[in-house]
Amino acid sequence: MTIGGAAVRATGTFGVINPATGEVAERAPDASRDQLDAAMTAARAAYPAWRRDEAARREALLAAADLLFARSEEIGRILTLEQGKPLTDATMEVVGAGVWLKYFAGLELPGEVIRDDADARVEVVRRPMGVVAAITPWNYPLLLAVWKLAPALLAGNTVVLKPSPFTPLSSLKLGEVLRGVLPPGVLNVVTGGDRLGAWMTAHEVPRKISFTGSVATGKRVAAAAAPDLKRVTLELGGNDPAILLDDVDPGAVAARLFGGAFQNNGQVCSAIKRVYAPEALYGDVVDALAEQARAARVGDGMREDVQYGPINNRPQYERVGELVAEAVAGGARAAAGGGPIDRPGYFFEPTILADVADGARIVDEEQFGPALPVIKYTDLDEALARANGTHFGLSGSVWGTDADRAAEVAAELECGTAWVNTHLALSPSQPFGGIKWSGVGVENGTWGLYGFTEIQVIHRSKT
Ligand code: NAD
């Protein structure tokens, strides 16, 4: 682990499984409570000097970006080993993390003089919060860690990062690599099970919890942060609808729709998780998606010709299998795929489910895997009502040849990001977050940076 700028070994360890084999590939440190205390203390000690030197922070973030660009393949291999995604995607994730660091290195820290007259000068500035506890999930371990630490560090905070126990290795490596460019204590990386996350949220030192994960855990985090009013940003689950309008060309949009649903094997918070297709086009939409699914190359992410790796972990693999089997038992038709692939590891066929409706768990819940239900609708208002009729509100998309009409419908979606004729288009400058149970606050852009600051008013009397 990285604590106070030094490599620290834990007394206990836990196994990290390669999802392509189902076997333990490495062991990761299981931090003790004392080690978490040490990480928090180191972060607190590093804070005063770090927050004062903005130029040094920008320089360090740029240097961090360069390190990730230079070592993207090496870190990408670690990511593939523990997460399962193909090496090209893993390497791109590391490069993406570098792009985010670079963006934040150059982002202006907003401040505004709101009054300057004979009597007073009043300035509104954004000050850092102190120590930030960052907790991340297993689908994009490296990128989502950097979504937190780049803006947190730019704003002048120091960070204690805890990755998911399913994917700790890439974050451990990140801590190790960045020791070269960040002062001791500015970024600490600790690993362990879920209890370590709970210890962090209840810990007295952090003033902010930046959390990405499931709705259920997000609610626990919010409750744990409440007693001492820690600030929270919660990036939680989604159940994104894609609504196809009656003027859509199924063949023309199929590849993009499929990509929006199956990127990272469907293990994306804001992937398309249910498709609503008009009755007249229903058969064509199902066929076009099924064709995409059948052509997808699934296998060990270390192999060059592979597009989709295994599901990341056994509980998730079992859950996806259960949701698909339950839908089929309830009358759904697997137009492509439909079950696990018979080989070691957590491989599952890219699955398109037809003749399925709201009320089935695979439609109502977040499946977070390579199985996509396609639902028939006859009335657009009814489709919108069904799309909005859940506790989720992360993102959604509307697809049609008349893009203006599609944009009007998209504005009716109750979610943080509404895409038109695309899905999963994200950038460092574009705020991203969910409404309803999908989250609190946003990440990215100036708005994301605000989340790692408090407003301070500097009111100077001139009289
Ligand atoms: P999870 O909630 O099980 O775990 C997320 C992290 O929280 C892990 O590091 C875990 O160890 C930690 N944790 C567990 N219990 C905790 C507790 N009581 N207190 C503090 N931390 C605790 O989620 P997951 O299964 O790793 O990730 C999948 C979920 O994440 C999906 O629902 C997905 O939609 C969501 N997600 C959301 C976004 C987003 O930006 N909105 C991005 C990626 C993933």
The strand count comes to 20
CATH class of the largest domain: Alpha Beta
Instruction: Give me the number of helical elements.
Output: 15
Task: Kindly report the name of the CATH homologous superfamily of the largest domain.
Answer: Aldehyde Dehydrogenase, Chain A, domain 1
How much is the average pLDDT?
Answer: 98
- What is the terminal separation in angstroms? 54 Å
Helix content: 25-40%
The radius of gyration computed from the alpha-carbon positions, rounded to a whole number of angstroms, is 23 Å
Which range does the strand content fall in? Answer: 15-25%
Which strand order does the major sheet show? 14-15-16-13-12-17-18
Choose one word for the global shape.
Answer: globular
Query: Class by helix and strand content?
Result: alpha/beta
- Counted up, domains total 2
CATH architecture of the largest domain: 3-Layer(aba) Sandwich
CATH fold descriptor of the largest domain: Aldehyde Dehydrogenase, Chain A, domain 1
Domain Aldehyde dehydrogenase: 12-457
Pfam family, one: Aldedh
Family: Belongs to the aldehyde dehydrogenase family.
Keywords: Oxidoreductase
What are the SSEs and their pairings?
Elements: E1 2-3, E2 6-7, E3 12-18, E4 23-30, H1 33-52, H2 54-70, H3 72-83, H4 87-105, E5 111-116, E6 120-128, E7 131-135, H5 141-155, E8 158-162, H6 169-178, E9 187-189, H7 194-202, E10 208-212, H8 215-225, E11 231-235, E12 240-244, H9 250-262, E13 272-278, H10 282-295, H11 314-329, E14 333-336, E15 351-354, H12 361-364, E16 371-377, H13 380-388, E17 395-399, H14 403-410, E18 417-420, E19 439-440, H15 445-450, E20 453-461
Parallel strand pairs: 7-8, 7-10, 8-9, 10-11, 12-13, 12-17, 13-16, 15-16, 17-18
Antiparallel strand pairs: 1-2, 3-4, 5-6, 6-20, 11-19, 14-15
Helix pairs in contact: 2-4, 2-5, 3-4, 3-6, 4-5, 9-10
The structure holds nicotinamide-adenine-dinucleotide.
